[in-house]
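Protein data:
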Amino acid sequence: MSAQRGWTTSDIPDQTGRRFIVTGANSGLGEVTARALGAAGADVVLACRDTGRGDEVARSIGPRAHVRRLDLADLSSVRTFAHTVDTVDVLINNAGVMALPERRTADGFEMQFGTNHLGHFALTGLLIEKITDRVVTMSSGLHRIGRIHLDDLNYSRRPYRRWPAYGQSKLANLMFALDLDRRLTAANSAIKSVAAHPGYATTNLQGHTESVQDAFLTVGNRIVAQSADMGALPELYAATSPEVTGGLYIGPSGRQELRGYPTIVAPSRPARDRAVQEALWDRSERLTGVRFPSLGSR
């Protein structure tokens, strides 16, 4: 990362001949990421639930962009999608939902934890032996408000609270990325696992709380948030820079990591808790039925 100026999409190396999967690439940060990768010469698979909108984005990128249906809130959809993949250089676990009213996935998981973490955990496990370069998993600065409740990950016994549930899911994303990299390193794998977060970026995530909070978030988008183009830079840097090593967390360089160009940032102390990481991994395997056989146990 240049010390002289901020890293931008103009710094993306030529990606000709490389294949990327971007989840949630039909809108927001995923759409920006897919467009930037396509402009750099990559083959891009837009893995999304809204394939109609995905088709529109793919057509605007060009013939190297392809749409495949993926619903991370349904493990059968995750498995079906994974079977269509032959090989991929980089998997970008970008899709997510935020601060929804209480809902359940097709498999009965709390929607935010099930979509943001378990769906991506299962997808990565099913694809891990087909990936050649790296896995990038999107977290959030709000991982800092999250706590991993190992005895009630899916809000089966405690009252549902949308923001703590979102924080738990984003903390789980970060812990998964860090633990995955340790396991890959221990297995002498050439694959890297990297985490990233966009800061406060304008996306359609902020309009789905189905509450009065939508109005406040809309105002925040106008006054505080940086653009989706800027918000996508950390994941693009994590996905394409040859300087990136496994186990890094990339976020905006500005005050409180809300805005700015990509830089290395620090996970919270709870995110680095090895015992909780391993317990979360074990429960995620049991909940999804997906294991990472080549990585073994830790």
Q: What stands out?
A: Residues 206-221 have pLDDT under 50 and may be disordered. DSSP finds nine helices and eight strands in the chain. The longest strand covers residues 131-138. The first helix runs from residue 28 to 39.
